[in-house]
From TrEMBL:
Keywords: Isomerase
Annotated GO biological process: carbohydrate metabolic process
Catalysed conversion reaction: an N-acyl-D-glucosamine = an N-acyl-D-mannosamine
UniProt name for this protein: N-acylglucosamine 2-epimerase
Keyword Manganese carried by entry: no
An annotated Gene Ontology molecular function: N-acylglucosamine 2-epimerase activity
Taxon lineage: Eukaryota, Metazoa, Cnidaria, Anthozoa, Octocorallia
Organism (species): Paramuricea clavata (Red gorgonian)
Pathway note: Amino-sugar metabolism; N-acetylneuraminate degradation
EC number: 5.1.3.8
């Protein structure tokens, strides 16, 4: 059997493990996270499923609605009325309690019964709200959800391009305007959701998508040797720790966003840049060669990052790397991408899977 045949057999094994893990995760959240009294979802669950804090978070409410809709739309097992009904109720809770109707700002936190607790001066709660509404539109084919998503998308783009005063951020004399990678990343992510299989919307948002891609590419710095988290608005490196900051997980996530768009549009140059510069490069910089795992933050000059959690190994960068390298291998059949996928899989399965968590807790 040749190398590709061996890899395909291994991928089948990985797929079976992921499906098993998905079922365990879904069982856990379906049984423990649904707030049947108030609507929405509990987010703070202990290992045994008990709720240790009833606060509800906009990011996680939106993500859970989106995930239920994604599974409803794309799998036979979860294409059930129960999953769709809970997703609808989650969407209703978001619309009723998390969105501020007068300006489309979304709250970051509420009490379990929807009393507002905190609002952020960013666009991210709104982005996850849009993804939830888009998911519900795909699952139900009801235009009201599509209109809701486009309405909030319009506000987000206004805050980015025209006037950000609606976000509530004060203009401070010592603050330098920056191009933070998270903004164009999220625009690409959300537009991919909004425009999926929607030719009219794809054309409508084509200029916005091109803007976001160009802004993201500005983060490739130092003659293509590093992806920096923050640059100035002209795409130049900024001084200090903020300018030297590397977030390997963010860069890899941006890489598969770019790769996905390149595959949709047939842009081979963007495909190459996405794989080589936004996936392979930050992975090689961010991987801990001694203990394995991806660092959370690094400094481009090898100095100490100011983030106290810089050397933690969080679950989400490893998830992004799994997606990115699997996509890269699918497109290139390059064995090094499969090797990187296996390396991340082995680390993730050993440290952050539900099997591992239970074994650690019970030992």
């Amino acid at each position: 059997m040749n190398e590709e045949g061996i890899n395909i057999n291994k991928l089948k094994e990985f797929k079976a493990k992921f499906e098993e893990e998905l079922n365990k995760v879904m069982k856990f959240w379906v049984e423990n996270s649904h707030d049947t009294s108030n609507g929405g979802f509990y987010n703070c669950l202990d290992e045994d499923g008990s709720v240790y804090d009833t606060t509800k978070y906009g990011w996680l409410q939106g993500r859970q609605v989106w995930m239920y809709c994604k599974l409803y739309n794309n799998t036979q097992q979860y294409h059930t009325e129960e999953i769709l009904d809970v997703a609808r109720k989650g969407g209703d809770f978001l619309q009723t309690y998390f969105k501020r109707p007068e300006d489309n700002k979304c709250y970051f936190m509420t009490t379990c019964d929807g009393k507002r607790m905190k609002i952020q001066r960013t666009i991210f709660c709104e982005c996850f709200y849009i993804m939830a509404m888009t998911g519900l539109y795909r699952a139900t084919n009801e235009e009201k959800y599509k209109k809701e998503a486009i309405s909030v998308m319009t506000s987000v783009l206004h805050w980015i391009h025209v006037d950000d005063s609606g976000l509530g951020r004060p203009k401070l004399s010592g603050s330098t305007p920056i191009n933070a990678m998270s903004i164009p990343m999220m625009v690409i992510c959300v537009l991919n959701e909004v425009c999926e299989d929607e030719k009219e919307l794809t054309l409508q948002y084509e200029e916005e998508m091109n803007w976001a891609i160009n802004e993201l590419l500005k983060h490739l710095q130092r003659n293509g040797s590093v992806i920096l988290e923050n640059v100035d608005t002209n795409g130049e490196e900024i001084p200090g720790s903020q300018g030297r900051l590397i977030n390997p997980g963010h860069a890899i996530e941006a890489g598969w966003f770019l790769l996905n768009h390149a595959l949709v549009t047939g842009d081979d140059n963007l495909k190459q840049t996405a794989i080589e510069k936004f996936i392979e490069l930050p992975f090689s910089i961010g991987w801990d060669s001694k203990n394995s795992g991806l660092y959370y933050f690094l400094d481009a000059d090898g100095l100490s990052p100011t983030q106290l959690e810089w050397n933690m190994k969080l679950w989400w960068p490893h998830c992004e790397a799994l997606i990115a390298f699997l996509m890269a291998y699918k497109e290139t059949r390059n064995g090094k991408h499969f090797e990187s996928f296996c390396k991340v899989f082995d680390y993730t399965w050993a440290h952050v899977s539900s099997v591992c968590v239970r074994s650690v807790v019970n030992s």
